[in-house]
C-alpha cells in the first residue's frame, strides 16, 4: 500500500477529458479528492480505485519542519 498525502501530485493511467493526466491530491482517507491540473475539475474516488489508477507520483508535498528553524 502506497502512502499518499495532501499536496502530492500524481499521474493517472487514463487521461481526463480535458487532456491532462496530472492531478493534485486535496483530501485523503477512505476516499480521495483529487483536482485536475489541466482544468481544476475536482473528483472524489474510493481509495482502492485511486491506488489502481495511479501510474506515477510526480512530486511529493514537503511540509516545512518547524524544528529546523
Structure characterization notes:
The protein has about 70 residues and is mostly beta strands. It starts with 8 loop residues before the first strand and ends in a 10-residue tail after the last strand. The protein has one domain (about 10-60). The mean pLDDT is about 85. It contains 1 helix and 5 strands; from the N terminus they run ββββαβ. The chain has a 5-stranded antiparallel sheet, covered by helices on one side. It is globular.
Write the layout of secondary structure elements.
Layout: E1 9-12, E2 22-27, E3 31-36, E4 42-46, H1 47-53, E5 54-59
Pfam families: DUF951
Protein name: DUF951 family protein
InterPro entries: DUF951
Keywords:
single chain; 69 residues; mainly beta; 5-stranded antiparallel beta sheet; 1 helix; 5 strands; globular; DUF951 family protein
Query: Roughly how many Å apart are the termini?
Result: 33 Å
- Average pLDDT confidence is 86
* Spans where pLDDT lies below 50 across 5 or more residues: none
How many domain modules? Answer: 1
* Strand runs, count: 5
- Assign an overall shape: globular
Computed over alpha carbons, the radius of gyration is 13 Å
Note the total helix count: 1
- Give the topology string: H per helix, E per strand: EEEEHE
Secondary structure class reads mainly beta
Protein name: DUF951 family protein
Pfam families: DUF951
InterPro entries: DUF951
Organism: Heliobacterium mobile (Heliobacillus mobilis)
Concise account of the structure shown:
Pfam families: DUF951. The protein is 10% helix and 39% strand. It is mostly beta strands and 69 residues long.
